[in-house]
Amino acid sequence: MSHHVPTDRPLVVIANRLPVSQTDDGWQAAAGGLVTALRPVIEATGGAWIGWDDDAEAVPRRVEGLACDLHAVPLSRAQVRGYYHGFANRTIWPLFHDLVVQPVIDRSWWRAYAEVNNRFAEVIADVVRAMDTPPLLWVQDYHLMLLPEMLRRRLPDSPLGFFLHIPFPPPELVARLPWRNQLLEGLLAADAVGFHTRLYRDNFVRSVQQLYGGVASLGDTLALPDGRHVRTVANPISIDVEEFSELARDDETEEELAELREQFEGRRVFLGVDRLDYTKGIRHRLQSIQLLLERNPRLRREFAFIQIAVPSRDDVKEYRELRTEVETEVGRINGRFTEPGHDVPVHYLYRGVSRAKLAAYYRLADVMCVTPLKDGMNLVAKEFVTCQAAGDGDGALLLSEFAGALLEFGDDAIRCNPFDVEGMSYLMEAALDLDPADRRARLRRLAESVRSADVYTWVDSQLGEIERSSRRP
Ligand code: ADP
Ligand code: G6P
């Protein structure tokens, strides 16, 4: 399908990660909503992608399946430790996810973060100077919050946008950061700053208002004391609905699904799919499952909970601890409830799975558990309803009130508070008891709401906002 290209400037995307991965068959374009959605624009405009990779020296300028230049920012191991494992993932990540674990404040990490953002700015400036027209620069996520300011100084002629893929917390939490002013000033140098929801956007606006007295907020525009205007945009990221619908029905998926159906025949299947991250509420979910099985002995044979946990950030202490806790909990539940001669109730996969397998699991599930303690958006929820609808399924979505996706889904999802472990276990029961016609109608509406705002809508509207705001005096 051809998509409208929302800018005629070259698009330069800047993100911590490059959209490539190294496989047995060499370097390949990474699968993922952001890459899929940006590919048409970046390719049509002759753009580039700038980011970091573990193996920066080896990253080729081009990979198959993505016709844009790749530029890897080489970083030393010490820089990666301070910037990525430290400041980004042990300070900002927990703080911006409402302190589900305690953030660590470490001045050497902050210095590394600033240094790496500066390193990115230098590489970007070199890339841009070699281009014929000033490109549109679009910076992604919490790893690079100082970058807009560093780019504005070096490249004043380029429209400049930023999008935050995680929540923006209330000002009381931002206040804990000794470097909050620098971070806010870093972001405010962009022409447009995007967030998934109005709540995150409003938190940002309130934080800015506390930083400078007298900032006027006129609709979506912030008027700063120096006369500059910055547009703040609330616009949820989404998925490529066509691509997932096709994936859900392709032959490989059907084969995987047939195998899974055989394996889980006669059982109701609950599913969780998450990076193994403490924000995802996996432990709370397992505790609810435990209560569910405790109350319903019959279910012990007629029920399966499959948790796919994708390995993530395992150089970070809190992530390693989480893995131990989750695996202990899985062992405890299976030890307690497995009946001789029968399968275990909890299937735990600590690995990534192929796209076809992922889609097959989505189609298999009777109840999808998306129960994060805090999540900026959660694409898994959108992928699930899309794959179910494509397969004419009637699976139910149990969705946390603390996931950004809830705002779009409203009451068609079964809303839960993952901190209330017992309450969540009753909702799991209720999900099983929903009338099938009701389940199907809910699923249709959920899938329709994803279809009506897919990732192309998101890219169009973000790029449009950045272009328009950069043209204002
Ligand atoms: P986060 O960005 O915090 O990881 P999201 O739910 O927004 O959470 O996005 C996760 C993405 O990772 C989804 O697009 C999903 O398809 C992908 N993903 C999740 N599990 C797997 C897996 N086992 N194998 C491959 N991709 C996965
Ligand atoms: C979240 C962040 C992304 C990040 C992803 C995976 O979705 O918003 O920026 O890329 O998690 O985490 P990782 O640390 O492996 O890049």
Write a concise synopsis of the structure shown.
Helix content is 48%, strand content 17%. The chain is of the alpha/beta class and 473 residues long.
Strand content: 15-25%
Overall number of strands: 17
CATH superfamily of the largest domain: Glycogen Phosphorylase B
Helix count?
18
What is the count of distinct domains?
Answer: 2
Fraction of residues in helices?
40-55%
Q: Outline the low-pLDDT stretches.
A: none
Task: State the major sheet.
Answer: 9 strands, mixed
Strand order of the largest sheet: 5-4-1-6-7-8-11-10-9
Instruction: Give the N-to-C terminal Cα separation.
Output: 37 Å
The CATH class designation of the largest domain is: Alpha Beta
What would the CATH topology of the largest domain be?
Rossmann fold
Task: Using the CA coordinates, give the radius of gyration.
Answer: 23 Å
Cofactors, ions and other ligands in the entry: adenosine-5'-diphosphate, 6-O-phosphono-alpha-D-glucopyranose
Assigned CATH architecture of the largest domain: 3-Layer(aba) Sandwich
Instruction: Give the class from helix and strand content and strand pairing.
Output: alpha/beta
Shape: globular
- Which whole number gives the mean pLDDT? 95
Architecture blueprint of SSEs:
Layout (H helix, E strand, L loop, with lengths): L10 E7 L2 E4 L2 E4 L3 H13 L2 E5 L16 E4 L4 H20 L10 H23 L6 E5 L6 H8 L5 E4 L7 H4 L5 H9 L3 E4 L2 H14 L4 E3 L2 E3 L5 E6 L6 H9 L1 H13 L4 E8 L6 H14 L3 H4 E8 L6 H21 L8 E5 L4 H10 L2 E4 L8 H12 L5 E5 L5 H4 L4 E3 L4 H13 L2 H17 L2 H17 L2
Parallel strand pairs: 1-4, 1-6, 4-5, 6-7, 7-8, 8-11, 12-13, 12-15, 13-14, 15-16, 16-17
Antiparallel strand pairs: 2-3, 9-10, 10-11
The structure holds adenosine-5'-diphosphate (ADP) and 6-O-phosphono-alpha-D-glucopyranose.
The site of 6-O-phosphono-alpha-D-glucopyranose (G6P) has 7 residues, from β1.
